[in-house]
Amino acid sequence: MKKVVLDTYEEVCRAVADIYTEQLTKKPDSILGLATGSTPVGLYEELVRRHRAGELDFSKARSFNLDEYYPISKSHPQSYDYFMRENLFDKINIGQYALPNGEAGDPEAECAGYDAAIEAAGGIDLMLLGIGHNGHIGFNEPSVSYSLGTYLVDLTESSLKANSRFFGPDTPQPTRALTMGLGSILNSRRIVLMICGASKAPIAGRLFEGKVHSDVPASFLLLHPDTTIFLDKEANGG
Ligand code: F6R
Q1: Residue 67 annotated as catalytic
Q2: Which H or E run contains 104?
Q3: Is 37 in the pocket of ligand 1 (CB under 6 A)?
Q4: Is 42 in the pocket of ligand 1 (CB under 6 A)?
Q5: How many CB atoms lie within 10 A of CB 18?
Q6: Do residues 63 and 94 make contact, with C-beta atoms less than 8 angstroms apart?
Q7: Which residues pair with 40 in a beta bridge?
Q8: How far apart are CA 143 and CA 7, in angstroms?
Q9: What is the pTM of this model?
Q10: Rg (CA), the chain
Q11: What is the DSSP code (8-state) at residue 174?
């Protein structure tokens, strides 16, 4: 696991955007794993900027997102599908994209189909992750048992609280999600984790204790041969 500390969030976004540029130059038909949340917003802005400047072509690339609330409609402004279209897909020329379907009638069949589609595409070349304050990656919550592939998960109080700011009284917050499992994440050939902001310093500290703990799901990344963690100074403890 490689650790890179940069002064600011903007520098982290540019450094991670450089990895995308390198990846898509080397392999234009890359399979990209993508995340939502506040952390990648600046990265997506930088990818859009580079695309508009003619520096990045996504036309042959294909993406699979980590997770989606369940149940939720794709047109719901808090759905991850909506987020991705707003922040990235509607602004670049991505060849094809997929998220777990929050509208699926049969969530188990949806999960199996999602894993099969990732496998048929040849697996994920570059996986982007953020981390929850509770150490989750995707929606793999602190737990004694994790699924290898995509699965339906009950969200913990901590994750519900962290995301409740996005839902109002008229828009009930889903309490479950479809998420790639730790196995799907660890099967990716290369992983980039972004950790930014002072509020993430405590969980970053736990991660860098260097031990795999089931109560810090992100610590399973220690088992992966090509993971780089980018932090801004604040997340690294100031
Ligand atoms: C999002 C996801 C989550 C977030 C994490 C951090 O697709 O899988 O694991 O990466 O909750 O969220 P932010 O960036 O909002 O702090």
Answers
A1: yes
A2: none
A3: yes
A4: no
A5: 12
A6: yes
A7: none
A8: 33
A9: 0.96
A10: 17
A11: P
User: So what's the pLDDT on residue 144?
Assistant: 62
**103 an active-site residue?**
no
Q: What angle do CA 16, 18, 24 make, to 5 degrees?
A: 110
Q: Between the CA of residue 133 and those of 59, 107, 138, what are the distances in Å?
A: 34, 27, 12
Would residue 136 show up in a list of annotated catalytic residues for this protein?
yes
Give the Cα separation of 182 and 143 in Å (integer).
Answer: 12
Average pLDDT over residues 52-78: 97
Dist CA 50 CA 73 (whole Å): 31
User: For ligand 1, is residue 67 a contact (CB within 6 Å)?
Assistant: yes
Helices marked H in the chain: 9-26, 41-52, 80-87, 107-120, 157-163, 182-186, 201-207
Active-site choice (65, 87, 101, 134):
134
Q: Tell me the C-alpha distance between 174 and 79, whole Å.
A: 10
Inform me whether the pLDDT recorded for 78 exceeds 80: yes
Ligand 1 atom with the smallest distance to the CA of 40 is 14
Please name the amino acid found at residue 62: R
For residues 231 and 4, give the distance between their C-alpha atoms in angstroms, rounded to a whole number. 6
Taking the C-alpha atoms of residue 171 and residue 215, their distance in angstroms, rounded to an integer, is 30
- Please tell me the number of Cα atoms within 13 Å of 137 on its side-chain side: 31
> In order of start, what are the domains of the chain with their CATH numbers?
2-232 (3.40.50.1360)
How far is it, in rounded angstroms, from Cα 94 to Cα 77? 21
Side chain identity, residue 217: P
Q: Which of 131, 157, 164, 194 to mutate to test the pocket of ligand 1 (most atoms within 8 A of CB)?
A: 131
Model confidence pLDDT, tens digit, residues 112-158: 999 999 999 999 999 999 999 999 999 999 986 678 999 999 998 98
Active site residue 110: no
